[in-house]
Amino acid sequence: MTGNQEPAMTKKDFSLTFCQVISALAVVMIHTNGCFWDFSATEDYWFTANIIDSIGYFAVPVFFMITGITLADYLDRYSTKTFFKKRIEKTLIPYIVWSLLAVAFLLATGKMLPSDITPAWIITSVIWTSNIIAFYWFFGALFVFYLLMPVIASIKKEEKLKVFKWFIIIIFICDVTIFFVLKLIGKYPEVIDTSGIGLGNLIYIFIGYYVYKKPPERAAKIIIYSLAVCGLLTQMIGTYMLSVRAGKIDEMLKGYANFPGIFYALGVFVLLRDIAIRIEKNGHLKKFFEMLGKYTFEVFLLHWFIINTAELIFTIDVKNLAYRLLFPLVIYAVTIAVTWVLRKIPVIRKIVP
């Protein structure tokens, strides 16, 4: 690819499907690696947990990039009314239903008491997307992106790259850099962190679209990959050293709207698309990943249930390295099986679009 090539945006772009599949696996790997948040400077598990968490950190940013790529030009395909109808059917309704099913799960397993649940609590929890299932914070950012997308999509196509470049620069200075400096001088807790509702993460919408429409040339890729390696190592080694010194997890170098996360995610996205070009030449591998790509959203929706159900049925050492690395593959397989069945049932299939 050269910088002059602008790929056509189609729903069947294999490179994006491949990115989605790898990112979905990475998301699950991060969550089966939850022992990362149980810090220990003396036990070996946290050393590997820090490595796994850092390596998988690209997952959600890459999904945000794909969101920008697939939706920023939605007006070429349908109206804004249709856009919101699709988002409600494919995202909002499944999110609400599975959140309520999670409440039922917590009640059935005794992790919540009926007295804990009131109509006000349910409404608040659905609005504050991470309240019931912490993993679902992703939806809060996604819904903000959806609300902003009509404005983004209305920018003239011939002006989008120029405008998006300025958005990237502005967010990088006003959000990423300023918040990093505030964290550096110890003032970050005193300010409002907007990243939870997606404003800081908005940079990925613009970066994804820009890089997709204007693929980097060889020289640019070398710079991108170099920054990605620096971002990964900075987060991995820096978090380890800062956490050991503090005696607790130090999140100075964490955060998706942070230098290490942005550099790393961008490099991984570019790399995955290059890998996808090679895989696409192998018909069997391409069909395999296209099949997996039909279930990436369901992996997001269901993996919390699968992890918690497994912990109820089996005695699992969550610090075991084999569990943290291999169970994501099991989760993906179970998700495919469950989704395949649910999609056969009228009405029910609407919650696994």
Describe this structure in words.
The chain is mainly α. It has one domain. 68% of the residues lie in helices and 0% in strands. It has helices at 14-32, 44-55, 59-71, 80-108, 119-127, 137-153, 157-184, 202-213, 218-246, 259-279, 283-293, 296-313, 321-342. Helix 2 (44-55) packs antiparallel against helix 9 (218-246). The model is unreliable at 1-10 and 190-196 (pLDDT under 50).
What is the total number of structural domains? Answer: 1
**Share of helix among residues?**
55-70%
**SSE order:** HHHHHHHHHHHHH
Shape: globular
The DSSP helix count reads: 13
Unreliable runs: 1-10, 190-196
What would you call the structural class? mainly alpha
* Overall mean pLDDT: 92
Distance between the termini: 33 Å
**Rg, Cα atoms, Å:** 20 Å
Q: What is the tally of beta strands? A: 0
| β-strand amount | under 5%
Helix and strand topology:
Layout: H1 14-32, H2 44-55, H3 59-71, H4 80-108, H5 119-127, H6 137-153, H7 157-184, H8 202-213, H9 218-246, H10 259-279, H11 283-293, H12 296-313, H13 321-342
What descriptive keywords fit this protein?
353 residues; mainly alpha; 13 helices; 0% strand; disordered N terminus
Nutshell version of this structure?
With 353 residues, this protein is mainly α. It has helices at residues 14-32, 44-55, 59-71, 80-108, 119-127, 137-153, 157-184, 202-213, 218-246, 259-279, 283-293, 296-313, 321-342.
